[in-house]
Write a structure and sequence with these properties.
The complex is a heterodimer of chains A (827) and B (258). Chain A contains 28 helices and 33 strands. In chain A, a hairpin with a 4-residue loop joins β4 (122-125) and β5 (130-138). In chain B, 24% of the residues lie in helices and 23% in strands. The chains are: A alpha+beta (827), B alpha/beta (258). Chains A and B meet through α10, α12, β18 and α19 of A and α1 and β6 of B.
Chain lengths: 827, 258
């Protein structure tokens, strides 16, 4: 024990000038040396604060401020003023979050939103007794430098978010969405950058091992490939948990003990929060990535939920970015009127004695939760946790002094004013600008291209952003907990691309839950975002909600999560695109009447190469959506079921090929970006949602990348049922005059349905007022036959060939399954 | 009639406990989740229960091989489990629970009680989740499969499910005692290699019973197919099968009742 090193009395070692006397430049140097990621204004604010107190800050104090003020924890860009110019209009945005996504939520005032934007996850009603907590996080920087560990701790972190929501929710579903460069990428890669194939396989393994070991099904997700992600891969992980409605309210009372439980604290994961808030370069440190231990977290989960049900604690939060400093600091704010906490770090259980007290305070060691335990409950709390083999330690108590006080032995490490800690971060105005990119408009029609329609279809199906994800999904235990009633892979051979999963959490809620379940889906399309981030936001929400409607969820109760991953917010263009994207989120939420309940932003996804050039990711928005499925027995999958059924197309097809796969195939540019018209889209969506839930359709799929051609092909080969499409019958706007546009336009808010002949009448009645047409029918011959506007056959493609084209890319890039053909496709 | 008490044995890393308990409840049992520590400390008694289930998961993280540590715990400290089996009461080990029974030397059952088989890494070298077809040996004396059709479907989800034996004699013994309860097959009921046999198991073995028929270990997850809505094809019109997995639990409960 004697080997504990002693805390430096203050941050200024002998060689450094004291803070009070330091120039701005010296502070900036100090900041860089310590990796705090504070900007000049923040450093000045810290300096001024301590000057007024007439003392020097301690290292632990500056560390605490740096963690708490990090972009990762504080979302400074989203909550600071922005001077935004769009064309000739200039607008001052005071608080982007409050004026966009949160604004929509406040305006919509849904009674089933039980806790939004305040806890570690958004919480919505499930039924009378239970609620659903949902949170999606990003773990981009760690996955760039150490993909396996980064992905594992990403999952572990978001699971803890859900354990730290309310008094703790039981995780019942994990979601994963990735953005990578193509695994077949063969361009140059700078030193220190991993090959995208290595990143991808390691990230998948990390998500797999943590999720599978914790016994949480990973059953919804997606991937987007674009070589612009080669320096900064994106990894979004989400968790849905079930929580009794009576366990949503949490509190902290002065006098409650601060108790940490779970893993011990070590030197792993120092500076994760500040690291995540900086750009990557070839020196980016692997030591900022923590080590995950799924079984420890499973034990914590088991113990915590038992303690919750016995009422042994009043409040809880997870130890994530910033470790104890953030967790205790956050909970301290809620203690009594003024808030406060008194921490004695001597009590902390450590992995190593070779750790400085300030390191203990900010370490991001995994699998730890912090509880507010009333003194008289401590003994019972301890018994529950030790029965599950989980260690705990008392770190101090919450107070009402308005101060965050931390000591080690008889040494005072931190004595910070809570108000300054939480509200003292200076709000700096940033400039932002958005100008539509100039692209050469398309010339002439596409009539002459129709001979290539079949080739274009195969291009789309084997495109990395469309092709089968079976290589990944099979590695996830997507059925553990016994509630995955609509699986991610659907169809006759269980290998078609499902729109969403449906979870029936019967094993958790018991018989009282009846047949009620929920569905989760995603929407993402960075290609649209490159042309117009506003249109991207609308398209993402449209996609996520359409997916939910297709499987039979009640979209009138859909809740959304936003995850923004962006480049450098100091770059006015990047920030302008972000503002425009957030505006799109607001308008989509209002238009669809679907509130955001939680969100997260990850900025600074940039890479500084050796020559000093900065590479940025494409502005990326992930929309995750969650909605109840009133009766899971009414759920529908996307595979065609039998021959001789009418096939209906819902929604207008316009000439919208901007950012589409058709443009990529043909080399065309300048097409209009698909733009959602929320009012009519919402009407159609609600009608679809209700028709599906009433059992009026046999199969349902929405039209996205690759348009009508891809959707029809996927439905047909997944069900091994052929289809004939008559393009003449497709409802379309006047600008659509050729078959190629009808087949490959990516107009949003469209669906394809297979309807049983005897239900046709009822279906049409349910869809009254919604643009739709019977565009073909399912056929016994296993082909996709497309009849041109002139009634001639435009193409006839064999389903097994289409399916093979769709199944091949990931399997061949990543090393397929031995005997891949055995179960999936025939022949 | 009093419902038979079912012990669903938990330890660190068990993760299929809730749905296994739920399946027993649906089957008419009275399940109780219990940590192995509570049994070892004497807080609960094994023989107070009519049925024991060891559910799936990653007991102790599968750190030194799937199920190994839990198996050692049972072999060393929970010796009465063997007596429990000898008493004729139903015992089922699913997935990790099967791995535990095998590594504890309980299945395949031998006079010496030594471990003569193992479940090791899949031939694909990956964790895989997929539905498989199984052929049940209806000649076996297993109480769990009474009334079941010869061909059933169940999901598997594991990285270490390849059944191997110490020597060819073990396989002969298993055949002779009709202890091979389920084998992986294709749509036609024939042995057909990967992915029909998802892990490369010897002789396509998916489930093993003791000759008396009251102790079952299997890699597939019957608790994940207890209603028709668990099957991947239930949304297809031609599909009308009920949750066959439930029958295994029902048979165990009915046996315990008698």
């Amino acid at each position: 024990m004697s080997s504990l090193r002693v805390e430096e009395p203050s941050v200024n070692g002998a060689a450094e000038t004291p803070w009070s006397a330091a120039t701005g430049r010296e502070l900036t140097e100090l900041n860089a040396r310590h990796g705090w990621s504070l900007d000049a204004a923040e450093l000045a604010a810290v300096q001024a604060h301590f000057k007024a107190l007439k003392r020097e800050p301690t290292l632990a104090e500056v560390e605490t401020l740096a963690q708490t003020w990090s972009e990762h924890c504080k979302h400074k860009t989203f909550t600071s003023p922005i001077r935004y110019r769009e064309g000739k209009t200039v607008k001052l945005v005071k608080n982007l979050l409050q004026e966009t996504v949160a604004f929509a939520t406040q305006k919509l005032k849904k009674p089933w939103c039980l806790s939004v934007f305040e806890d570690n996850a958004g919480i919505v009603a499930f039924d009378k007794a239970w609620a659903l907590a949902y949170k999606a996080e990003t773990h981009n920087h760690p996955c760039a430098v150490e993909p396996y560990g980064g992905a594992e701790t990403g999952v572990g972190g978001v699971v803890r978010d859900v354990l730290g929501a309310g008094l703790g929710a039981k995780p019942v579903l994990n979601t994963d969405v990735f953005c990578f460069a193509a695994p077949t990428y063969d361009g140059p890669l700078p030193a220190g950058t991993l090959h995208p194939k290595r990143t991808m396989t390691s990230v998948v393994a990390g998500v797999r091992d943590y999720g599978n070991r914790m016994g949480i099904p990973t059953a919804a997700g997606g991937i987007w490939f674009d070589d612009e992600y080669r320096f900064n891969p994106l990894v979004f992980v989400g968790t849905v948990g079930l929580i009794p409605r009576s366990a949503i309210a949490k509190s902290v009372k002065p006098g409650d003990l601060i108790v940490a439980a779970g893993g011990r604290t070590g030197r792993d994961g120092l500076h994760g929060a500040t690291f995540s808030s900086a750009a990557l370069d070839d020196s980016s440190s692997v030591s900022a990535v923590q080590i995950g231990h799924a079984i420890m977290e499973k034990k914590v989960l088991d113990a915590q939920l038992r303690a919750r049900d016995k009422g042994l604690y009043r409040g809880v939060t997870d130890c994530g970015a910033g470790g104890f400093s953030s967790a205790v600091g956050e909970m301290a704010e809620k203690s009594g009127k003024k808030g406060g906490a008194r921490v004695r770090l001597d009590g902390a259980l450590l992995k190593t004695t070779e750790i400085l007290p300030w390191e203990t305070w900010v370490s991001e060691s995994q699998e730890r939760m912090v509880f507010a335990v009333p003194k008289d409950k401590l003994a019972a709390f301890a018994e529950v946790f030790s029965a599950e083999g989980v260690e705990h330690c008392v770190l101090g108590e919450f107070t009402d002094t308005g101060r965050l006080e931390v000591s080690w032995k008889d040494q005072k490490l931190v004595d910070l004013d809570l108000h300054f800690l939480h509200k003292g971060v200076p709000r700096r105005e940033r400039p932002a600008v958005w100008d539509a990119p100039k692209t050469a408009p398309k010339k002439g029609g596409r009539g002459s291209e129709k001979a290539r329609a079949g080739e274009a279809l195969r291009f789309c199906l084997s495109h990395l952003n469309v092709c089968s994800r079976e290589w990944i999904i099979r590695q996830y235990d997507h059925e553990v907990q016994g509630g995955t009633v609509v699986k991610p892979l659907q169809g006759l051979h269980h290998d078609g691309p499902g729109d969403a999963c449906v979870i029936w959490p019967q094993a958790v809620v018991g018989e009282s839950g009846g047949w009620r379940g929920f569905a989760v889906s995603h929407g993402m399309n960075p290609s649209y975002g490159k042309l117009d981030p506003y249109a991207m936001a609308l398209a993402c929400v449209d996609e996520a909600l359409s997916n939910l409607a297709c499987v039979g969820a009640d979209v009138s109760q859909a809740a959304l999560l936003d995850n923004f991953c962006w480049g450098d917010p100091e770059d006015p263009k990047a920030l302008g695109a972000l503002v425009r994207c957030a505006n799109g989120c607001r308008d989509a939420a209002l238009g669809f009447s679907a509130p955001f309940i939680s969100g997260k932003d990850s900025l600074n996804n940039t890479y500084l190469d050796a020559k000093g050039a900065k590479h940025s990711i494409p502005g990326t928005l992930l929309i995750s959506a969650l909605a109840p499925v009133p009766d899971v027995r009414q759920a529908v999958t996307m595979d065609f079921k039998t021959a001789n059924n009418p096939v209906y197309l819902v929604g207008w097809t316009s000439d919208e090929t901007g950012g589409s796969l058709w443009e990529e195939f043909s080399g065309e540019t300048g097409g209009a970006v698909p733009l959602v018209e929320p009012r009519s889209a919402k009407e159609a969506l609600l009608a679809v949602s209700s028709a599906v839930r009433s059992g009026l359709v046999m199969s349902a799929h929405d039209l996205r990348e690759g348009g009508l051609a891809v959707a029809a092909a996927e439905m047909a080969f997944s069900g091994e049922v052929g289809v004939r499409l008559d393009l003449e019958r497709v409802p379309r706007t006047k600008d659509v005059t050729d078959p190629v546009t009808i087949l490959f336009s990516e107009s949003p808010s469209r669906f394809l349905f297979e309807v049983a002949p005897e239900k046709e009448k009822a279906f049409l009645k349910a869809m009254k007022g919604v643009p739709l047409a019977r565009v073909g029918q399912t056929i016994a011959n296993p082909v996709l036959r497309v009849v041109d506007l002139d009634s001639r056959t435009l193409m006839e493609e064999r389903l097994h060939e289409l399916k093979a084209a769709w199944q091949r890319p990931l399997a061949s890039a990543l090393g397929g399954w031995p005997g891949q053909n055995g179960n999936g496709s025939h022949k | 009639m009093k419902k038979p008490r079912v012990l669903v044995l938990r330890t660190a890393g068990t993760n299929c406990d809730l749905e296994t308990a739920s399946a027993f409840k649906m089957a008419g049992g009275d399940p109780e989740l219990l940590h192995v520590r509570d049994l070892l400390k004497g807080k609960a008694k094994l023989f107070d229960f009519g049925i024991v289930a060891i559910p799936g998961g990653f007991s102790y993280g599968d750190d030194v091989g799937a199920g190994r540590i839990f198996a050692n715990e049972i072999r060393g400290q929970l010796r009465e489990l063997k007596g429990f089996i000898r008493s004729g009461r139903p015992v089922i080990g699913i997935c990790n629970g099967f791995q535990v029974l095998v590594k504890a030397g309980i299945l395949p059952q031998t006079p010496s009680g030594e471990q003569v088989a193992s479940l090791t890494f899949n031939d694909s070298a990956r964790f895989e989740a997929r539905w498989v077809r199984l052929r049940i040996n209806l000649q076996s004396g297993s109480l769990f499969v009474k009334g079941l059709p010869e061909m059933i479907e169940l999901p598997v989800a594991h990285g270490e499910g390849k059944f191997v034996v110490k020597s060819p004699k073990v396989l002969e013994m298993l055949k002779k005692t009709r202890s091979i309860l389920m084998q992986y097959v294709n749509e036609e009921g024939k042995f057909a290699g990967y992915p029909h046999n998802p892990n490369g198991s010897l002789f396509n073995i998916a489930a093993v019973t003791n000759p008396e028929g009251n102790c079952l270990g299997l890699m597939p997850h019957p608790e994940r197919y207890v209603t028709r809505w668990h099957h991947p094809n239930w949304t297809r019109q031609t599909f009308c099968k009920e949750g066959v997995g439930l029958e295994l639990f029902r048979n165990a409960v009915n046996h315990a009742l008698n």
